[in-house]
Every structure is written in C-alpha cells, then in structure tokens.
Amino acid sequence: MAEPTTFRDRLALQTTLLCLLVLTAGGTAVFFGARAALLANLDGALLGIARAELASALDGPGGKVHLHEENQLVLHGAAGYEKYALIRNAQGDPAAYTANLKLDQLAVLDTPPVPTAHAGAATYSDIVLRGQRLRAIHYPFQDQKGTAYLATCAVPYAPLEQALQLLGAILMLALTVCGVGTLWGAQRLARRLTDPLAELARQARHIGEDSLDARIPRLSSDQELESVREGLNAMLARLETAFSERERVLEAQRQFLLDASHELRTPVSNLRGTLEVALRRPRSADDYHETLEQCLPEAERLSVLVQDLLALARADSQAEHPEHQPIPLLALVEQALQAHRARATEKSVQLCQAAESELSTLRVWGDPVRLRQVLDNLLDNALRFSPPETTITVTVTKTAEAAVVTVQDQGPGIAPDDLPFIFERFWRTDLSRARATGGLGLGLAIARSLVEAQGGTLHALSRTEPGACFELRFPHATASEVAEQG
C-alpha cells in the first residue's frame, strides 16, 4: 500500500488499524475462551461416559467385567464418533476393551503412565491413536468383591476441532467485514473531521496583504479547531497592525523626504541664484564681499538643517545610545537658563525658574548632553515666539513616579487644532511660517525623539490663557540608585 500523503488518509488508515487491532484481540480472546469451554465440555462428557460405562460394566453374568459396544458418544452439534474404552485390572492386564481396539493398540490408551489414576483419582490425558488425536479419561473403580480396576475412555478431538475451525472462520469473516466497514466509516469520519481544516486552509489562502482585515469565520464547534482559528485570527490582527504601522512609517518617510527636499531646495536655490548673478560679469571686491555676505545666512541655514536632519536620522536608527546616569535636574535647568539669558535680554524677555528648595537633590535618569539639548530646544522655541516684556517660566516639580519640568511662555500660544501636529517634522503653525522666526519645524520633533530615547515623555499642554506650555517628564533616581551608580 502506498504511503498516505494526506492527514485524512493517515487518520482513516490509523483508525482502521486500531479498530482491527482491538477486534483481533477481542476475537482471539473469544476463540481461546470458546476453546477452553469446549474442552471443559468434552472433559465433562468424558466423565459422564466413564461413569455410565462403569455403572454397567459390572452387570454381566457372574459379575464379569464387560463393555457395551452400542454406547456411542454424542456431543452437541456433532455425532457418530467412535468411543474407545479399555479396562485393566490391578496387575495391568486388559479385562475388557471395545472391539475397535486391537490388542497391540491397548498400550497406547495407557500411555503415558497415569500414576494419579492408579492412586485412586480420575485424570485426563491426550493420546494419539492411528494418527488421530484423542482425549482420554482414566477412571479407577472396584467391583463388588473389592477388586481394583482402571478404566480408560477416549473420544476423538475432531468435533472440538471442527467447532473451533468453524468459529475461527466466523471470526475471520467478521473481522474482514468489520475491517471493510471500519475503513469506510473511518474515511467518512476523517472527512468530517478534516473538512473544517481544509476550509480553514482555503480561507487562509484567500487572505493577502490587501485583505488583512478579513478574519476566518467559525467553522466548527470543536475546541481544538476553535483554538487554531482564534490563533490564526490573532496572528492576522498582529500582521494587520504591523502592515499598517509599516505603511504609516513609509508614508512618514516619504513625507519627510518631500519636506526635507523642499526645505533644502529654498536655500540651495537662493545660493545658486545669488552666485549666478555675481558671476555674470566681472565685479569689484566689494561686490563679491557683498555677495558672500548674502550667501552666508543661507549657508548657515543649510548647516542647521543638515545638523537637524542628522540628529533625527540618528534618533530614528538609534545609532547613538544615550548614557543613562543620575543627573541633578535643578543644576541642569539653571545651566540652560544661564546659557539663554543673553538672548533673552536682547529680546527684553525675562527667564524665571520655579522650584522648591527640597528639590535641590533631585536626580533623574538620562544623558546630560541629550537632556540639555532638549531644554535648549524648548527654551529656543519659547524665546522665538515670546514678545518683548514677557516672561518664560521653567517649573520643576516631583511626583511619585517622575520628575516634571514645564516650560511656559507668554507668546501667541498653540491653537487647540494644532496641538496634535506640533511634534511632526517640518510642521509649523501659520504664524511661525514667517522666515523671520528662523524655525525649520524640526526642533520639537528632535526634542521628543531625544526624550523618548531616554525613557521620558514630552507633551504640549492645552491652555486657555495666552502662551505655550510644554511638559517634560523623566523617571527620577532614588537615593539607593544614586549610591549604586556612584
């Protein structure tokens, strides 16, 4: 038989083989049980024959021991089989035997020796006479004078063997019929069990990248198949989320490239146009000096843009791993404020710090260089949009889980509709699109990337009063963590 190639075929074949094995074991038990019962029945019949023969063996004239030739063994389901009988005296000489025995065959009925019978107890044995297997009983008795005799009665095994052969044939026929029926039933059962699996595979094959939102419907009430279906649907949900995220990232990258190209194109075009005008005819040194002065701001703008793009690329690829260490937060905030005081004075803007004195020992986990860059970006953003004679307030507080720094200015603020977009790259409000502010729309995006790389969060708060407010949260370091780090 060819090796099955499908689970359905293997299931049907293995189910059939298992059923045949069970039926064979049961048939074997029935066969040997019937054999034991028939043998017990034969022994019982032999015992009855022996007793009947012995009861009539002493009714002859003068008490002479004799046998009745007309008595034949009759078994249930079979008849007409010969009976062999022999009576020996205590000396072992034959006293009587049936006419179907010859003198030279008498020793066969007493072979092998039966010492148990000679000791006064009936016993059974198997003998072979004329090539025929016989079942014999050896039965001791005494005549009216007390003379001891040993009677041997034997009958052929043929009726028992015929019954066993018939039983074996019936069992083989039943096994064959049951095997064929089991194979047919196993194939139908295997088909019923595997049809949901085939349908499951068919449904899964029709789900592709463009149809990841599809789900496999309920196909069976079986718990195992339901577990498979639920697992596949959960996998499809994860794949759908992953593909959606991939599409979102790809779209963000495409938009980023478009925005970066747009931002680079303007200063490059300005530089090229200015240089082309300067090279159209010979000019004096003062003219060239004036041209270079016109090109320098655009070159500086390009430099800042390239640096910002490089910072974003590094943050996205995680090429730079920030060094996490306990940082004295108030000292770092004071350094950032001090670095921006000169610019704030030029714009007539006041920088203020608000923090309770017990926070002087507050430490946060992070990279001091990157955290300082975040504070510089937030302060630069606040100074860019703060009108003269206003105040920028940096507040430091502490919660159970984190240290919180808020940077609040009194500028035009952020419209509620703009809050979801202010951390997107190259995004600017209508008010800030004027080139006079010098913004590229990358500062807040860079700040959030740096904060998230260090395990913190950065959000813009929606406020009713004028001005923008940004909240920076970082996990604070406990005293034991500071001691371990030290």
TrEMBL record:
GO terms for cellular component: plasma membrane. It catalyses: ATP + protein L-histidine = ADP + protein N-phospho-L-histidine. InterPro entries: HAMP_dom (IPR003660), HATPase_C_sf (IPR036890), HATPase_dom (IPR003594), His_kinase_dom (IPR005467), HisK_dim/P_dom (IPR003661), HisK_dim/P_sf (IPR036097), Sig_transdc_His_kin-like_C (IPR004358), TCS_sensor_his_kinase (IPR050428). Its main location: membrane. Residues 191-244 form the HAMP domain. Residues 259-478 form the Histidine kinase domain. This is histidine kinase. The lineage of its organism: Bacteria, Bacillati, Armatimonadota, Armatimonadia, Armatimonadales.
